[in-house]
Specification:
Helix content of chain A: 10-25%
Oligomer: heterodimer
CATH class of chain A: Alpha Beta
Number of domains of chain B: 2
Shape of chain B: globular
Order of helices and strands of chain B: HHHHHHHHHHHHHHHH
Helix content of chain B: 55-70%
Number of helices of chain B: 16
Strand content of chain A: 15-25%
Distance between the termini of chain A: 26 Å
Largest interface: A-B, 26 and 25 residues
Strand content of chain B: under 5%
Structural class of chain B: mainly alpha
Radius of gyration of chain B: 20 Å
Distance between the termini of chain B: 30 Å
CATH topology of chain A: Ribosomal Protein L9, domain 1
Number of domains of chain A: 1
CATH architecture of the largest domain in chain B: Up-down Bundle
Strand order of the largest sheet of chain A: 1-2-5
Largest sheet of chain B: none
Radius of gyration of chain A: 14 Å
Chain lengths: 72, 340
């Protein structure tokens, strides 16, 4: 992964992890597909991208089970 | 915390020196250490407690030990003797996993995740989730006090040794571990709240005298890697594997805590780690470890050594607990009855 160019202090840069979640730095909340707002309580949050997390919209590591199934 | 009770000749010599009863005889100490059978090093309570005690001089120290002794040459010499035993044993036991990762293709981050995925260690979290009694869950919490009450402290020592992107990522991760500016969210404080909720002592070192040698070894490996700049790759590999084996098990442990009816505050610590460590594992594996290896390819083998060490020791510590519960179950009837 190459370093992302740094923007102004207010910029939010999303980082997609291969086979894993999307990391978001400095967001105050994430709105899910039902319109519900989930407060971000830490400086970096991981948003589920595999759809299997039991803590939507946050990643809970479940993608690893998906990954090991895929890898046989 | 006071200087812990000794468990054998080595920890007796360390304690005697710390309490200024007798100057440490380094030759005698070395001979004693050399006599420890190699196969026993990781679970030898005497070796591991002696080393843990010497390391603790660099963290919180002991109320009955002079702070001046942190850099005492004889004590550092004794620490070096035990570190040599520990590092040699860790390298010996992880050589196949490390070589396998070095020989594998693909990006470093994927190889770390593959090492974690390939680990077939004992299923402690699954047992806590579905089968453990309340007493066994509490016993698990007691063993974990040694680590969680100083959570991430060893790794914080590595920050000054990193540069650029890896340093930024470690700082970001540690900021979260250390509460993100809120003392009540310090992970160590949250664990202390869990302990109180479970009816346990939450003071630092409260259960030191009863935890196993292997549990102490888990913690000593972190201090070994963190206190030596040459082992910074192993320190971060270990941290990465630790974070990458936390999220899913934490979810199971939290569910197990609720199943046996312990208060919500006990589960809260593990709930926090489900989401926190899903972030931390990405930072530690991809941004810290992969960047370190990209910038200094010579660190690759040590990063894998750290990963393999974490998996090895977690497996040994988890297996030991399960075995203890199984043994008490087989001798005295069903585990559930014995431990209740």
């Amino acid at each position: 992964m190459r370093p992302v160019p740094s923007g102004s202090p207010g910029d939010v840069v999303a980082e997609l992890c291969p086979g894993g979640p999307m990391l978001l730095r400095g967001v105050s909340a994430v709105r899910d597909e039902h319109g519900e707002l989930h407060e971000a309580t830490r400086p970096v949050v991981a948003v589920c991208m595999c759809g299997r997390s039991q803590r939507q919209p946050w990643c809970d590591g479940t993608h690893k089970a998906v990954r090991s199934t895929r890898r046989g | 915390m006071r200087c812990p009770h000794p468990r054998g000749p080595l920890s007796t010599m360390v304690r005697g020196s710390l309490l200024r009863h007798a100057e440490l005889d380094l030759d005698a100490f070395t001979r004693r250490a050399d006599a420890v059978p190699r196969a026993h090093v990781l679970r030898d309570g005497d070796v591991q407690l002696a080393l843990w005690t010497l390391y603790e001089l660099h963290f919180r120290g002991f109320e009955d030990v002079s702070a001046d002794l942190e850099w005492d040459p004889l004590l550092l010499g004794a620490r070096g003797v035990l570190e040599c035993l520990l590092e040699r044993d860790l390298r010996r036991r992880t050589v196949e996993r490390v070589q396998g990762a070095l020989d594998a293709d693909g990006p470093v981050a994927e190889r770390i995740f593959d090492m974690v995925a390939a680990d077939d260690g004992p299923r402690l979290a699954a047992y806590l989730h579905r089968e453990a009694t309340a007493a066994q869950v509490v016993e698990f919490l007691r063993e974990r006090t040694v680590f969680h009450l100083k959570e991430s402290d060893p790794q914080s020592l590595v920050l000054a040794r990193l540069e650029g992107r890896a340093k930024t990522a470690l700082a970001e991760l540690l900021y979260d571990e250390f509460g993100g500016g809120r003392p009540e969210r310090l992970h160590a404080s949250m664990f202390a709240d869990s302990l109180v909720g479970a009816g346990l002592e939450s003071s630092y070192g409260a259960y030191l005298d009863e935890v196993s040698g292997t549990t102490l070894a888990v913690n000593n490996a972190m201090s070994l890697f963190a206190l030596h700049r040459r082992l910074r790759g192993a320190a971060m590999g270990h941290f990465a594997a630790f974070e990458a084996t936390s999220s899913v098990p934490s979810r199971k442990i939290a569910a197990g805590i609720r199943r046996v009816g312990l208060p919500e505050v006990v589960a809260a610590y593990f709930d926090e780690h489900v989401e926190a460590d899903a972030v931390h594992e990405q930072l530690a594996v991809r941004t810290i470890c992969a960047t370190m290896v990209e910038e200094a390819p010579g660190l690759e083998a040590d990063v894998f050594l750290g990963v393999a060490t974490c998996l090895l020791l977690d497996g040994l510590a988890g297996g030991e607990l399960l075995e203890r519960w199984r043994a008490s179950g087989s001798s005295d009837g069903p585990v559930e009855q014995v431990a209740s």
